[in-house]
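To: structure subgroup
Subject: Chain for Friday's discussion

All,

I'm putting the inputs and outputs inline so they're searchable in the archive.
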Amino acid sequence: MRVFILRHSIAEDASPGGSDAARALTPEGRQKLRSVLDCARSAGVHPSAILTSPLKRAAQTAELAAKHLDVKRKLIEIKALAPPGSPQQIWAEIREIATEEVMIVGHEPLLSRTTAFLLRCPALRLNLKKGALVSIDIEDGQTEPHGILNWILTPRLVRRD
């Protein structure tokens, strides 16, 4: 199984009295995300399912990823990808999907903790930048993940200035 972990891209600041969950992607965030997704598509990234946090900025990121990567299966919102979800809950959701390639879209620090969990490296410290994409291979049939890191792609690496 291959798991792609995508952090939501740059979102607008919360308006005074506004909800954090309602924050939308900015035009800059959309542009940077498209650059990452172009590179990912060129590298053959084609998940068959995308699990996303229900928060607006993550859902918008997932929608762009689905469109850009030509994902046919419907996006699946799961609460475990929103704070205060846990890596164990996310792993249970991934296993339930039972597909060869799945993408999860969410927030920091949960995605960094999930990456460390999937790699069975709890001491691993990451700071996934907004719009970053991680690729991990996981041996099939494991109740506990045993992942291998393939790569990490950030918007800065694909910048086209």
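Points worth raising on Friday:
The chain has four helices and six strands.
Residues 2-12+20-158 form a domain with the Rossmann fold fold (CATH 3.40.50.1240).

D.
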